[in-house]
Amino acid sequence: MKRIGLFGGTFDPVHIGHIVAAEYVLDACGLERVLFVPTRIPPHKGAPDTPAEDRFHMVEVAVADRPGLGVSRVELDREGPSYTVDTLRYLRTRHPDVRFAWIIGADQLLGFPMWKSPEEIVSLADLIAVVRPGYNEHKGMDVVRKQFPRAALEVVEMPRLEVSSSELRARLEAGRTVSVLVPQAVQELIRAKGLYKRAGRVR
């Protein structure tokens, strides 16, 4: 059975930290592919300022030359908030021969029991927690393992990369460089589309 990882997020913008996390998981867990799943509307936030299609295309160009990485429109083509359980139901129905794994930041594990239908999520997919250096993931792991004893939970450590999409948006809006932090193809798309220009321009 093929095993495919699903990496959800707004990716506003996608950056090198996302790419590194996906590639580490791909290698460490022996997955056939990791698919980025850009969120249309995060369940507990408002819709991002950056249009969904632009966020999709940024991920698309970011992974175009990365073997094993891809991008899915599954949440963008569905109306309403992007709940993980709805995405997994849809994919499992259409791909019964695939074993899915949902990639989650280790810092999100503590809040996982508050997600929509978490018991069903762990019945539809494995969980892969990505851990940054210096973060103690054990408390979150203990919570998940205690409340969902049947959950298949793996942990993948990645190198320290101090970068966040919110910080990158601020830099882009101020006209500051994001060189190295954002893939070159994504920087070029941001320039071409005039994204993040409220307070400045991309250099």
Automatic annotation (TrEMBL):
<dbReference type="GO" id="GO:0005524">
    <property type="term" value="F:ATP binding"/>
</dbReference>
<feature type="domain" description="Cytidyltransferase-like">
    <location>
        <begin position="6"/>
        <end position="171"/>
    </location>
</feature>
<keyword id="KW-0808">Transferase</keyword>
<protein>
    <recommendedName>
        <fullName>Probable nicotinate-nucleotide adenylyltransferase</fullName>
        <ecNumber>2.7.7.18</ecNumber>
    </recommendedName>
</protein>
<dbReference type="GO" id="GO:0004515">
    <property type="term" value="F:nicotinate-nucleotide adenylyltransferase activity"/>
</dbReference>
<keyword id="KW-0547">Nucleotide-binding</keyword>
<keyword id="KW-0520">NAD</keyword>
<keyword id="KW-0548">Nucleotidyltransferase</keyword>
<dbReference type="InterPro" id="IPR004821">
    <property type="entry name" value="Cyt_trans-like"/>
</dbReference>
<comment type="pathway">
    <text>Cofactor biosynthesis; NAD(+) biosynthesis; deamido-NAD(+) from nicotinate D-ribonucleotide: step 1/1.</text>
</comment>
<dbReference type="InterPro" id="IPR005248">
    <property type="entry name" value="NadD/NMNAT"/>
</dbReference>
<keyword id="KW-0067">ATP-binding</keyword>
<dbReference type="GO" id="GO:0009435">
    <property type="term" value="P:NAD+ biosynthetic process"/>
</dbReference>
<comment type="function">
    <text>Catalyzes the reversible adenylation of nicotinate mononucleotide (NaMN) to nicotinic acid adenine dinucleotide (NaAD).</text>
</comment>
<dbReference type="Pfam" id="PF01467">
    <property type="entry name" value="CTP_transf_like"/>
</dbReference>
<dbReference type="InterPro" id="IPR014729">
    <property type="entry name" value="Rossmann-like_a/b/a_fold"/>
</dbReference>
<keyword id="KW-0662">Pyridine nucleotide biosynthesis</keyword>
<comment type="similarity">
    <text>Belongs to the NadD family.</text>
</comment>
